[in-house]
Amino acid sequence: MKNLVVLLLLLANMAQGQTIRKRPENGVYLTAKDFEAGIVSHGFTSSDDEKLLDNKRGYIVIKQRDSTTRFYFDQLWGYRKEGVDWRLYNEEGYRVESTNKICLYSVPVCVACLTTQPLYFSVDAVSPLHPLSRKNLLDVYHSNKAFVEKIKHLPWTSSIMKKDKATHKFRFIGWL
């Protein structure tokens, strides 16, 4: 019993000595594995002399105090800007909304133009992106028979975009 108490005290002291590393607000994810592990390359926090510029076609630029680095879209999985993760796919940037059972993405658009943002999905962080629709969900998850049956039996008058009141997530995610 005495040994157990000593062990618990040692573990508590070790845990207090460790610092939790915060993911930088800005930087790039070279691969999907880096994104999943939270490894940001060329990371930095926001300041006046350090910027991530994503308004270029086909590349992003990281300007730091003593250097400027250009990353072409085909070199990266994505990037993190002001604490928000983005995936690059087919020369476009998609905002990462969720990565639970399914990866969900959005594309910011003119608010006055559309009532809802277009949503996209992928099975995981390396899979192709698809517009979120019943047909695409059925095509991509065709081997998941239970999921396919739930989608097929969903009345056409019910939206696939309906959210569960308890989890605040799309209902179909719970079916996966």
From TrEMBL:
The positions making up the signal sequence are 1-17
- List keywords of the entry alphabetically: Signal
The answer on whether this UniProt entry bears the keyword Signal reads yes
Q: What is this protein called?
A: WG containing repeat-containing protein
Which species is the source of this protein? Sediminibacterium roseum
